[in-house]
Amino acid sequence: MCKPKKIIMKNLSISIRFGLIMSVCLIAYFLILAIFNLHINPLFSIFNGFIIGFGIYETINYSKLKEGDQFNYINGFKYGLISGSIATLIFTIFFTFFATEIDPKFIYNLLGSISGEYEIHVGLVSFIVAIMGFSSTVILTLTAMQLFKPSLNIVQKA
C-alpha cells in the first residue's frame, strides 16, 4: 500500500520540476523578445502555447514511464495541470514584476492601439495573462492525454 503513495508523491515532484522548467523557458522567451522590442506584439505570445504544450506532454510522458502499469488518465491529467499551473503562476508573477518595476511603460506600449478613454491597469492585464495560462493548461493537458490514454478500439481481423 505504501508503494503507490511514494510513486504519486515522486511524480508530483516531477510535475513541480517540469513546471519550474517551463516557467524559466517562458521567462527566457519573453526576455529575448524584450531585447528586440518584440514583447509588445501579442502575436509572439502564440509560442507560449508551444512551450507549455511541450512541457505538459513531457511531464505526462515522464510520469507514465515512471509509474508504468499504475499510470491512469486521472494521474496524468493531474500531473499536467500541476506543472502547467506552476508555470503559469510563476510567469504571471514575473510578468507583473516586469510591467511594474522593470518597464513601467510596457502596458501602455502593449495596449497602444486601444483608445485613451479606457483605464487599463497592470492588475487587469496580469489577471488576463493568468487566465490565458490556466485555460491553455487545461486545454493542452486534455489534448496531451489523448496521446496517452489506452485505446478502446476493437481489433478486426481482415
What is the total number of structural domains?
1
Q: How many helical stretches?
A: 5
Mean pLDDT: 87
* N/C terminus separation: 44 Å
Q: What's the Cα radius of gyration?
A: 19 Å
Q: State the secondary-structure class.
A: mainly alpha
**SSE pattern:** HHHHH
Give the strand content.
under 5%
- Apparent shape: elongated
The counted number of beta strands is 0
Largest sheet: none
Low-confidence stretches: none
Q: Specify the helix fraction band.
A: over 70%
What does this structure look like?
The chain has helices spanning 2-35, 46-67, 73-102, 106-110, 122-148. With 158 residues, the protein is mostly helical. It has one domain (2-110, 120-146). Helix 1 (2-35) runs parallel beside helix 3 and helix 2 (46-67) runs antiparallel to helix 3. The protein is elongated and about 65 Å long. The N and C termini lie far apart (44 Å). 22% of the residues are buried. The mean pLDDT is 87.
Give the SSE layout:
Blueprint: H1 2-35, H2 46-67, H3 73-102, H4 106-110, H5 122-148
Helix pairs in contact: 1-2, 1-3, 2-3, 2-5, 3-5
Short description:
The chain is an all-alpha fold and 158 residues long. Helix content is 75%, strand content 0%. Helix 1 (2-35) runs parallel beside helix 3 and helix 3 packs antiparallel against helix 5 (122-148).
